[in-house]
Amino acid sequence: MKLTFSKKWLLLWLLPAWCMAVQVKPDAPGTYVVKKGDTLWDISSLYLEQPWQWPELWRNNPTISNPHLIFPGDELRLTVNADGEPELLVSRAKPLIKISPTVERMQKSAEPVPVLPWSVIEPYLEHGLVMTEEAYLGLPKLLGDYDGGIRFAEGDLVLGQNDAGLDDMIVLRKQNVLYDMDDNPLGVQVRHVADASLVPTEEVSMHLVRVKASNFEATQGDRLASADTLPLGEEIRLTPAGQQRGFVIGNLREHNMMGKLDVVALDLGEYQNMQPGTVMGIYQPGPSISARDKPEYVAGTTWFSKALGEEEALTAPPMKIGELVVFKVFDKTSYALITKASKMVTRGAIVAHP
């Protein structure tokens, strides 16, 4: 008998659950000094088979108030509490003292190690946005400059459409459209390419803007939006996914195959209670195979697969091939970093509890 989609998910639910006892790796270090360049995920992976259980290692530890705030120089010590459960203790490094030009003693504030590698996710956190097609098309355009140019760099004076009366603006460019697995549009991926400021003019049908700091060259047809259009970054707190289930639907670079440390887009967002720090497993959908005299793979729900009949095809359960961590969430979609992958990840990979 052919397994239905709901039965396929049932098999997925029967995979080992995330809500199990903390499993410390046999080779976990007894002590570890946090170094600059470490990430919280890296450190968690040193100790745990399931890194998203990081907060569980701290339990009610009075030596630290937030297990997601670990600093370079901190010494972590693995111990066992009175109940025989593993836990971590921290010896916090003393603040560095520097002498200012005025010879005053000042404490140098340390930055906590990031949860994920900042160099990989920073372009998406700082310069990535997903909005509806209608919202993007409703934004005023960059029209051109006085020299007939089509590309504009920092300092250039550019004619813009429709004076919105905004002093501080950003220049946005459409990358591509995100579609769910049924080809319904979920939003437009937009990139922040530059900043701009309004130059006063008496013309009401258009305005002049000065291109300011730029990440890329602005081009004719790019859109102008308020500087506060970019959402503020949220704190990333590791937590395993609950009942959320969805799919990898692509990435900003439009690659067909993704691996470890690639950023992917999911068809899950705020509407599905996704939050930065949600950890999910990545599962490869199982193939459907006809059970006739000569077994054959059945691709999708074609007329051929339907003609086989329910009793003529079997569908293998999904197989876990990796993990990812969500770091930026929009209404219907989210961005996530692949932290582990035993096989290449493609569009249509299932994401669910880890």
TrEMBL record:
Pfam families: LysM. Keywords: Signal. Residues 30-78 form the LysM domain. Gene3D superfamilies: LysM domain. Residues 1-21 form the signal peptide. InterPro entries: Bact_Kbp (IPR052196), LysM (IPR018392), LysM_dom_sf (IPR036779). SUPFAM superfamilies: LysM domain. This is LysM peptidoglycan-binding domain-containing protein. It comes from Bowmanella dokdonensis. The lineage of its organism: Bacteria, Pseudomonadati, Pseudomonadota, Gammaproteobacteria, Alteromonadales.
